[in-house]
Amino acid sequence: MSILPWGEDQKRHFIYMQFKAQHEHYQKHYPDALWMVVDVEKMPAGRLYIERWSRELRIIDIALLPDFRAKGIGSSILEDLKVEAMESGKKISIHVEKENPAMSLYLRLGFGIIEDKGIYNLLGWPHPS
Length: 129
What we know:
- One of its GO terms (molecular function) is acyltransferase activity, transferring groups other than amino-acyl groups.
- The protein is of the alpha+beta class.
- It is built from 3 helices and 6 strands.
- A 6-stranded mixed sheet has the order 1-2-3-4-6-5.
- Strand 1 and strand 2 form a beta hairpin.
């Protein structure tokens, strides 16, 4: 956003409006989802939106602030979800943009591409062989 000739208030308002639109979309399409703040040492580090279905954990959104990336936090969250899925006999799914740098993390942790959705891939764990 640094290339835009906007003041800080305009940038904050734009970001807020984008967040609000995304959150409203998620609430409409995932009405039973849990919306959680990821805390690291009592500091907000990101967010996790997840809906628990009868046979599946759907990760709607997982995001970490830049200062908290590449520190094993995302891996830890995903490993915890894998344990929950194993204990409850469920699978995990998430839509990930193909160019998202975290794609390699998901693949490394055993997620696999289930379906090509255009700019997104639907990933699943465990990946059906």
